[in-house]
Amino acid sequence: MNAEPTTDRLAKGTAKARATRAALIDLAAELFAEQGYAHTSIRDIARRGALTSGALYGHFRNKADLLVAAINQRTTEELEAQSMNIPDAQNYVKTLTRLSADYPKRRRLRTLIVQGAAAAQTDNETKERLREEQLSHLEGWIAGYEQHRDAMGIDAAVDLHAAVIYTWAVEVGLGVLESMGIEPHSPNAWADMANRFARSLQLAPDEGARGKRRNK
């Protein structure tokens, strides 16, 4: 019987490592949601995954790495995969409206971000890792809007950096309110507000209001 080729063994090993990493990310996200990020330890996650803490450290440096990986994965799957490289991607009004109507599907993502933000107040490692992760997405979104501004019909005076930050602040801010039991009346009402904001980016600036700000 011939020995299994080295390339096949390496491929299987890589696939297994990826599967283990993905499973650990899912387990960590579940535990963070159940117990809170601050009250979940590496040992808790390893125990849930039937692994040793040492085995877990073979995939992640620390708990902050796991949190960032969980947030990144959900952002990619629940937002970017639903808005990029699809037929109506340049119809940003339609895309933002649809994504806003689906806000209940992203509750776990918002919970992870809010818990991470709370931990970042006192943990510099978590703060820096979260900042890097969030900026990687924000900068990509801003670049996309800048590239397709004309096709989207967005007014030339709109500060796209501010527009993207504003939109994301609404998403993350909803997570803060949800932690207090405050939520929109309905997905349709929430989507309507997003639609109104998105369409406003096509408007020319209010010169009267701009002049008043300059004169203050």
Q: Share of helix among residues?
A: over 70%
Oligomer: single chain
Which CATH architecture of the largest domain is right?
A: Orthogonal Bundle
Report how far apart the termini are.
Answer: 85 Å
Task: Kindly provide the radius of gyration, computed on alpha-carbon positions and rounded to a whole number of angstroms.
Answer: 21 Å
Q: What is the N-to-C order of secondary-structure elements (H for helix, E for strand)?
A: HHHHHHHHHH
Under CATH at level 1, the class of the largest domain stands as Mainly Alpha
Tally of individual helices: 10
Instruction: Give the strand tally.
Output: 0
CATH topology descriptor of the largest domain: Tetracycline Repressor, domain 2
Largest sheet, described in full? none
- Shape annotation: elongated
Q: What is the residue-mean pLDDT, rounded to a whole number?
A: 87
User: Which spans of ≥5 residues are poorly predicted at pLDDT below 50?
Assistant: none
Tell me what portion of residues adopts beta-strand conformation: under 5%
What structural category do the secondary elements indicate? mainly alpha
Domains counted in the coordinates: how many?
A: 2
